[in-house]
Amino acid sequence: MQRIAFVRASIALAVATILGGVSLQATAADPILIGVPAPMTGPNTQYGDELKAGVLTAIEMLNASGGMQGRPYEPVLIDDACEPKQAVQAANRVLNSGARFAIAHVCSGVTVPASRIYEDEGIVTITPGATAPQITDNLKGHYFFRTIGRDDQQGPFAASFITTRLKPKSVVVLHDKQTYGAGVAQQVKTWLEKLGTPIALYDGINAGDSDYSAVITKLKTIKPDVVFFGGYHPEMGLLLRQAREQGLQTRFMAAEGAYNRGLYEIAGAAVEGMMFTYPADFSKRPGNERIVQAFQQANRPADGAYQMPAYAAMQVLHQSMLAVGPNPKKVADYMHSNSFDTVLGPVSFDRKGDLKNFEFVVFELAKDGSRTQVR
Predict the structure, then answer these.
(1) 63: exposed, middle or buried (C-beta count within 10 Å: 0-12, 13-18, 19+)?
(2) Model-level pTM?
(3) Domain 32-148+282-356 class in CATH
């Protein structure tokens, strides 16, 4: 009996060991979830497409190389519609998915309320698109970062270009009354004033309107040399088209949010001469050729505003997890104290989670919608 009992016990122990090994192996291969909330419906879906293209391409390449020590990355796609009213819901969906890491949001108006949830819940989050300074200024957090420059970097850059290159006698600054648009417009206005450039009008328009003839009538009366617009491409496209239809030939300029491939669909040939500040085209950076090829093979453009910042965000998370494991607190600590090799070049973060440096350029559009870098 004792012999039989011993054999049975040995078999049971062996089975338990085998099953335990299988269980441990499965746990080791469990995916690491990455929340990806972005506009996937509504008029600003193209910005979400850019963010997704960067994250998905990065995840596919990393998984093909073994993921995070054998554990694959898995994106959790969530629609925030670029709508502030959906921000909390989108952030809670990231939390409820079980993701402890996120590459999140393009629109600043969504990011402001959502960032508080990520911070409170200890979800390491990187935004590759939200540029409003108040996100990180007010959050004063530990878990929130961004891989794009702030409006108080982009605004002075735009104002300097307008003043030194365009040399206008008067400028009108318009915005869409939203967090991003009003923020970047205020930065441009402030720096134009510091540089001594006369501002003839500072005014807001209503995002979502279809008729901007009232403001265009004001512009025709003022006759400014330059109109700077802070906002997104749907309103920018209508302003350009309706201005040209009413015979206004003033040069328009904007920040990165006002340009994507959908702008030409709205404005057509009226885009000619429009200028905009924009992240540098990191798809042309030496060393990124293999990554750009991966974008192309997946039928995803790589040269928009947010693809490469989103790809870089995934690189930062991956390098951090390789160093300290997928522990959010340890990952955030590591991100604050280290530099990372990314498609943007070497990047590092300040105590607020902002990039210490970011490169903006200026593009000008031709009649057919093609763009040329002019600074």
Answers:
(1) middle
(2) 0.89
(3) alpha beta
